[in-house]
Design goal:
It is globular and about 40 Å long. The protein contains 9 helices and no strands. The protein is an all-alpha fold. Helix 4 packs across helix 7 and helix 5 (about 50-80) packs across helix 6 (about 90-110). It is about 70% helix and about 0% strand. The protein has 2 domains: about 1-30; about 35-160, Up-down Bundle (Dehydroquinate synthase-like, alpha domain), CATH 1.20.1090.
Length: about 160
């Protein structure tokens, strides 16, 4: 689709189409909320010089590992959408392949793979996790599985 054509050497129309798709996808978010991935990124944008989209990238793998037991069916569909061959795999194995494909895409696009890229240190994790827990309650509640404070800390630690 447009994403593959639009990054990293965009043709003339793909960036506009991606921007429109992003806008349309964002319209309902104010009504339904987003998941813990976004809830964990917002505190980073508050304390560090990081754009929201860029900050999501290094958090993705830890977050996806957390939701995998609760959303393997959906993740297996992500793998299929990303053209990963999952025909003879269990839903759990297909979910793992989706996580690998997303991680590879992040790397191929040259996005950060570690939150330490933004200056986050291990001693910052408690502050970030507390902020996410206290101020992003709705987004945490929209996430498959019951996201605890310890889960938030673990995702940040895995993202270092």
């Amino acid at each position: 689709g447009n994403f593959g054509k639009g990054c990293p050497q965009p043709d003339e129309e793909s960036p506009d189409r991606m921007a429109m798709a992003s806008t349309l996808a964002g319209i309902p978010l104010g009504q339904v909320g987003v998941c813990a991935l976004h809830a964990l990124e917002h505190p980073m944008s508050s304390y560090f010089d990081v754009h929201h989209g860029e900050g999501l990238a290094p958090l993705a793998r830890g977050f996806l590992n957390f939701v995998k037991p609760h959303a393997s069916e959906k993740l297996s569909k992500v793998a299929e959408a990303m053209k990963v061959d999952v025909a003879n795999l269990s839903k759990e194995e297909a979910a793992e392949r989706a996580i690998d494909a997303i991680t590879t895409l992040i790397r191929d696009l040259g996005l950060p793979e570690s939150i330490s890229t933004f200056g986050v240190k291990k001693e910052d994790i408690e502050k970030l996790a507390t902020n996410a827990r206290n101020h992003m309650v709705h987004n945490l509640s929209c996430t498959p599985g019951n996201v605890t404070f310890d889960d938030i800390v673990r995702i940040y630690e895995e993202s270092m």
